[in-house]
Amino acid sequence: MTNLKYFITYKIVLCTTLMYFFTLFAFAQSPTSSKTNFWNSVEYGGGIGLNFGDGFFNGSLTPNAVYRFNPYIASGIGLNFSYSSQKDVYKSTVLGGSIIGLFNPYREIQISTEFEQLHVSRTFDDRFITNLEEDYWYPALFLGAGYSNNNVTIGIRYDVLYDKDKSIYSEAWMPFVRFRF
After folding, report:
1. What are phi and psi of 11, to 5 degrees?
2. Is the pTM of the predicted complex or chain greater than 0.85?
3. From the CB of residue 85, how many other CB atoms can be counted at a distance below 10 Å?
4. Contact, 144 vs 157, CB < 8 A?
5. In whole angstroms, what separates CA 36 from the centre of its chain?
6. β-bridge mates for residue 179, sequence order
7. Could you give the strand order of the β-sheet that contains 73-86, starting from the edge strand earlier in sequence?
8. Nearest-5° angle of CA 175, CA 39, CA 147?
9. 148-178, pLDDT tens digit by residue?
């Protein structure tokens, strides 16, 4: 039995070492060109929102960056920040991040997926609700489609995890406009 354990350990070490060397040589082709091409394939974008009215204010900032693997596929990350308040009713702060996936089967058509994880902190005035404070995490998974023209995409997306009681969005369907630089 001891010989069997030794043999299995020996095989694991040998296989791991071989995989290490094959991987090392596979990525050792041209390190300088991959560094310069990486930043050339990164696209930046995001959104800025500002709403205000009689006692109401809402401001949001949502920067993101995606890496374009080829003309058809891109993936990236985003940050979300939003602050809202209604005088004598509530105050809300939302912080979070997202993972983005983009697929362009044709140059003008874009299919998107985006997973958001948001921390919602709300404080209500005691005249409107008995639960004065809410702190919770809210996930959202958006599937979308849009029309692209150069660096602008206009489309619609749907939150498949939508919960009307917890979501910061009023509807599961949302139009969007994306700008990339």
Report:
1. -65, -40
2. no
3. 17
4. yes
5. 25
6. 152
7. 42-53, 56-68, 73-86, 90-106, 109-124, 133-149, 152-159, 173-179
8. 25
9. 998 899 999 999 999 998 888 889 999 988 8
